[in-house]
Amino acid sequence: MIPAWVFLATSMALVGSYVGLSKALVAVFPVFLLAGLRFGIAALAMTAWLRRPADEPALDRADKGWLFLGSFLGNFGFSICMLLGVQATSALSAGVVMALIPAAVALLSALWLHERVSPRILLAIACAGAGIALLALARGGEGGGSLLGHLLLLGAVFCEAAYVVVGKRLGTKLSPRRISALINLWGLGLMAPLALWQGLGFEWGGVRVQDAALLVFYALAASVVSVWLWMRGLQGCPANKAGVFAVLIPVASAAVGILFLGERAGLIHIAALSLALLGIVLATRR
User: Fold this and answer.
1) What's the alpha-carbon Rg for the chain, to the nearest Å?
2) Diameter over CA atoms, the chain
3) 190: which of 25, 76, 114, 259 fits an S-S bond (Cβ 3.0–4.6 Å)?
4) CA torsion through residues 111, 114, 118, 121, sign
């Protein structure tokens, strides 16, 4: 049997690795149109996952509310807060603030799911946060920025943390496939008005075949594979422990930059990666 942490680690590594792809696609498609196309392509791919299995209980009003909350915060809210926050501050500020994700997951899991946060998980969270902060410092950039920008980034942190906790709660009743499909469908509904608004003035004739192929790959990786892996892993792992694996997002992104984009790795990169791996070891050891 595959351990839950393997699914979680693979999901977060995949999320971090397609950061480069999203940067390339943003140069072709407006942000909201790109998000809408992503959710739309994924919805087509996951149509069969929407059907309720015979042994799965029907959704009640509370379940539907949690599904909406997970999509509104994890898909719609996170994207808006992060994009606007980075515009008002800097990439350095975003990296440092996003280091708070594991701590935010632990806080929300304790408040919403009444999970106990052990000292070992707290230490793992601290290692994860320190690793991400070091990676942010290694990338350089200008600090500062507006107070509103930093508040938006903090909002993005708690949006992502809420997404983790909501997925853990729904996993007690729904299969990972159905959670993934329903949350993506809500994301499509929320993003559709903004996507249609940008799509009306978009020059579709300028989209190359390779851009379209990259879009399809990005949509399937971001909205189907990584989400399913995450929901599958949450079935066998407490939310506060799963949140530690968010450290792999900037770690994988840095690895892609070093291996494929020609960025140079220094001692600070090695120290950051070592802290990140130590956090994962602490979170996963029995």
Assistant:
1) 18
2) 56
3) 76
4) negative
**For residue range 139-157, what is the model confidence (pLDDT) as tens digits?**
554 444 566 777 887 888 7
Angle of helix 267-284 versus helix 248-260 axis, rounded to 10: 140
What are the structure tokens assigned to 204, written together? 């579709």
In sequence order, the 6+-apart residues with CB closer than 8 A to the CB of 157 are 97, 98, 100, 101, 104
Task: Report whether pLDDT(128) > 60.
Answer: yes
Q: Do the beta carbons of residue 173 and residue 64 sit within 8 Å?
A: no
3-class state of residue 65 by DSSP: helix
Region of 135 (left: φ > 0; alpha: ψ -120 to 50; beta: rest) is alpha
Indicate the range of 30-39, 97-106, 175-184 predicted with least confidence. Answer: 97-106
